[in-house]
Amino acid sequence: MTMTEQRSKWVNEAAHSMNLEGLEVSDEYRAESEEYVTGKVTSDELVRKARARFGLD
After folding, report:
1. What is the pLDDT along the chain (57 residues), one digit of tens a residue?
2. Ranges for the Antitoxin VbhA domain (predicted)?
3. 19 to each of 36, 37, 43, 55, 56, how far by Cα in Å?
4. DSSP of the chain
5. Cα–Cα distance measured from residue 54 to residue 23, given in angstroms and rounded to the nearest whole number
6. CA-CA distance, 6 to 29, in Å (whole number)?
């Protein structure tokens, strides 16, 4: 499995988990996670963006 495939799997699992909890996956999450999957941002950058979006920084 390539790194891109592995990252895609992790992102899909996270989205599935969110759906199971009754949460909706936002367009922002989808766009930012796609940047992570394609290697444009690191996992640390992805977390930083999510935290900033929710005012946690």
Report:
1. 999 999 999 999 999 999 999 999 999 999 999 999 999 999 999 999 999 988 997
2. 7-53
3. 20, 19, 21, 22, 22
4. --HHHHHHHHHHHHHHHHHHTTPPPPHHHHHHHHHHHTTSS-HHHHHHHHHHHTT--
5. 15
6. 18
C-beta of residue 32 within 8 angstroms of C-beta of residue 50 = yes
32, burial (CB in 10 Å: exposed 0-12, middle 13-18, buried 19+): buried
Q: Distance between CA atoms of 22 and 35, rounded to whole angstroms?
A: 24
